[in-house]
Structure formats: structure tokens, C-alpha cells
Design goal:
The protein has a domain at 35-88. Helices cover 56% and strands 0% of the residues. It has 88 residues and is an all-alpha fold.
Length: 88
Amino acid sequence: MAGKITAAFFVFVTVAFLANVGFVVGNPAIATGYDPLEVCIENCAQCKKMLGAWFEGPLCAESCITFKGKLIPECENFASISPFLNKL
């Protein structure tokens, strides 16, 4: 009797697992979704913290709003932040 219960349990678990495989989503664990404008402005703030007076944070934020977050600055990528650097 114990063998039948174990086999039935194994079959149930296997079927339940296979039924749920189609519902697995490989997206990052973001509850609200990906907002490029928000990421852009957060990256501007991060670059301002990293580079200080060398980085024009308000200009970066304005470009985020103008381009609706399509040009996201990366603080370690010179090409993406060069428009916002000043000579002091």
C-alpha cells in the first residue's frame, strides 16, 4: 500500500511540475515593470554622486525627459556621459 501512495504522489508531483513549466517567466524580479525614464534619471543621480562637480546632473535629467529615457547614461561609459561633463 505504501508503494502505491508513493507512486501516486510522484506522478502527481511530476504532472503538477510539467503543467507549470509553461507559466515560468524569465523576466527580472521587478514587481512594477521596467520604466526607462526612471532608470535614466536614477543613472543621472548615480553619475552625479560618482563624478561630483564634473557632471551636470540637471542637464542629464533634462535630456532624460526630452528623449523619454531612450538615452540612458552609464557612468562608466564615457560616450554616454560625455555630453554632461564639464571642464570645471
